[in-house]
Amino acid sequence: MAKVVAVTGNEACANALRQVNPDVCGIYPITPQTDMMQRYASYISDGKVKTEPILVESEHSSMSACIGASAAGGRVITATSSQGLALMWEMLHIASGDRLPIIMPVVNRALSAPLNIHGDHSDAMGCRDTGWIQIWSENAQEAYDNTIQAFRVGEHMDIRLPVMVCMDGFIISHSIERMEYLEDAEVQNFVGEFQNLYPLLDLDKPKSYGPLILTDLYHEYKRAQHEVMLKVKNVVLDVAKDFEKMSGRKYGLFETYRLEDADIALVILNSAAGTSKDVVDDFRSRGIKAGLLKPRLFRPFPYEEIAEALKNTKAVCVMDRSDSFGGYGPLFMEISSALYQLQQKPALINKIYGLGGRDYLPSHGELVFNELNEIAKSGKINIIKEYIGVRE
Amino acid sequence: MAEMTEIRWHGRGGQGTVTAAKVLADACLSGGRHVQAFPEYGPERAGAPLRAYNRVSSKELRMHCPVLNPDVVTVVDATLLDSINIAEGAKENTIYIINTTRDPKEIRQKIGAAAAQKVITVDATKIAIDCFGRAMPNSPMLGALCKATGLITLEHLLEDVKKSFGKKFSQKVIDGNLEATRRGYEEVREG
């Protein structure tokens, strides 16, 4: 029986991790870490999990400890945010290159300078090319559900890759909302016993991780990494199917909302997608065919499927909560690449919103939909990329 | 009750305002309702003005942004009436609940409340000092909010106060807060 609770996103994820009860957890326990790991440390102290904590002196070391523990043959987790993720960057490549299925909730927050601790996607977007699978979450329920599913995806024998589960800092991580917990036994049964693959601690069969590979085979090694990423989509869908059977909650590669017959649409990640759905309803009630697409799996990116979902729209705005300064927003670049392959494609614009926790309000969504409506009629785009919600 | 009730809390750091919003969210879970509770995060300092928000709805809450047009405005510290506009974005039938020793009619005039807006006062700080010896007005404010809005029954609220405070405090503090919640409920004045 599901248990209905009112909890923060951090609490929800910490509970998901408790229910999985992994072997090892790397913890760097000060800012920018959130209370997710504080809560997990309490579970360890209270004997509610058998996890071995490794307390370290930085997030770089935290990921290094996770890499060692994972290569040794354990089920391994950590969590991070903002500068912490940025400091891990070097080690993120090693986790994915060594094919280690480390699971890591990421509380998306802004990067310095200037110093800011609020919701923003710059941290996770900054490591989209590190070879990690990325799953994004709208609310506490999704963050919890995605964390549980991440174990099955990353640890799948055809995949063996690390997974980041992203949720918005403060807006979800520190805010309380209603959600449903699964039973401990359901979660344990769903994720199953951890299966080792080439554990270092199997001393009868010695092996090495991360050796020197020069021009002879490095290129092939990276191609293999690309190939395995191509298999991830199907595994994500299979795992989602099983998860739906257990929980009744449906997940895909992305979510569409009233998109089927939409003329105009937003593409938007995480919590702001929820706010935008209410705006979509408002426009629909006025007879304007608005819709929305919320990516869930960002790495690997489902280009063909998203192009298919957007192909009948007339104008689309991609909303980015981070910027590639001097370039377009990172989500825009993906959607643009996806749509380019279509013969007939919608007009496409990019709005940067909500940096450093700037509120994304329904009125912002309304402005964008109004602009899209004009573009759909005239076919004319004035500015491709623009900041919204800016104080002038 | 309307499909959705949106509440804005005004308090100062250290008065338990955020805790009150959390307790309210928990208490409102009953009957399959959807709830949210979230503070406006800034540098956390005792005495600094802060806002917190609740949404309670019979439908799924997808909106993730501050409450802009509150159905209920709860002011935990009356000194804020002089420094910020607590009526910002209020609806024509917004309910104000103010912790003050002053007469509700006087407060009505001060904040310029319209005829259809309810103004409710309660001396929550005095109740808190009477009941558990600390100027921590959050539990009597919850009692007053319960009475003014009818969002939950008093019995249900008391159960949740007990549960929330039970994790951290001694029996004496819990009993004091339960009594303070009850008195907050009973001692509201409307004007």
Oligomer: heterodimer
For the sheet with most strands of chain A, the description reads: 6 strands, mixed
Helical amount among residues of chain B, as a percent range? 25-40%
* Structure summary, number of beta strands of chain A: 16
Order of helices and strands of chain B: EHEEEEHEHHHHE
Large-scale geometry of chain A? globular
Order of adjacent strands in the largest pleated sheet of chain B: 2-3-1-4-5-6-7
E-strand count of chain B: 7
- Radius of gyration from the alpha-carbon trace of chain A, in angstroms: 21 Å
Helix content of chain A: 40-55%
Write a brief structural summary.
Chain A is an alpha/beta fold.
What can you tell me about this protein's structure?
The complex is a heterodimer of chains A (392) and B (191). Chain A contains twelve helices and 16 strands. By secondary structure, chain A is α/β, with parallel strands linked by helices. Chain A has two domains: 245 residues, Rossmann fold (3-Layer(aba) Sandwich); 134 residues, Rossmann fold, CATH 3.40.50.920. In chain A, helix 2 links the parallel strand 2 and strand 3. Chain A is globular and about 70 Å long. By secondary structure, chain B is α/β, with parallel strands linked by helices. Chain B has a single domain, classed as Pyruvate-ferredoxin oxidoreductase, PFOR, domain III (Pyruvate-ferredoxin Oxidoreductase, domain 3, 3-Layer(aba) Sandwich), CATH 3.40.920. In chain B, 36% of the residues lie in helices and 21% in strands. Chain B has a seven-stranded mixed beta sheet with strand order 2-3-1-4-5-6-7, sandwiched between helices. The two termini of chain B are 22 Å apart. At the A-B interface, strand 1, strand 9 and helix 9 of A face helix 1 and strand 2 of B. Strand 9 of chain A pairs antiparallel with strand 2 of chain B, so a sheet runs across the interface.
